[in-house]
Amino acid sequence: MRIDILTGFPKIVEGPLNESIIKIGRQKGAVQIVVHNLRDYTDDKHKTIDDYPYGGGPGMVLKVEPIVRALDVLFTEHNADEAQIVLPSPRGTTLTQSLVTRYSLAGHLVIICGHYKGIDERVHDFYKIEEVSIGDYILSSGEIAALVLVDALVRLQPGVIKDIDSAWTDSFSDDLLDAPYYTRPAEFRGVKVPQVLTSGDHKKIEQWRLRQREDLTRKRRPDLYEKYIKINK
Q1: Within a domain: 163
Q2: Does the annotation list 8 as a binding residue?
Q3: pTM score above 0.70
Q4: What are the helix (H) ranges across the chain?
Q5: Could you tell me if 40 and 150 lie in one domain?
């Protein structure tokens, strides 16, 4: 998989992209991640990527020219006609595990990092862009949201995580939260690991974990539980 990140602030993303699971994915060749500095696509000596909004009001807006120029070059030089372009945005579809799974199966993803008040709306006139929200709150940097998406994508690429079943059974994979997990020691300050988990009976352990997942989801995310019940009636 190839992921291109368009940003005016590359230093925000460069550190995390070279750590932990993302670093492993890159080293193994499971994913190629390229960061593009939008300032390289400006035409003024100050490398300006933002300006005041028409109509007035507070805040700044990312200019249309650098973004479209960067996309033009990307699509020309890297045959990106089939690429999926994603813009982290509060007005986008909520990012879910099912959406992450769909994106993870794409061969090429392009992420535009908004900043300030957002991007010039005309970018949408030149390219088909899917807007995605990571939650009902506002960040000052689209780069942070982009990193959330990248991390979620990379861990699903073949060969990145040793036990891929671990990734595919995480919370939200089937509309249920994950079960509680325990590790050694078997007892700490008088609190013991549930006996079933040390029984060696894998069928009982599987049943226990499913009950735990259902109970946790019902209590903490009734919206997900309702969806799960409808599907599994």
Answers
A1: no
A2: no
A3: yes
A4: 10-14, 20-27, 64-77, 97-104, 123-126, 142-154, 164-168, 202-220, 222-231
A5: yes
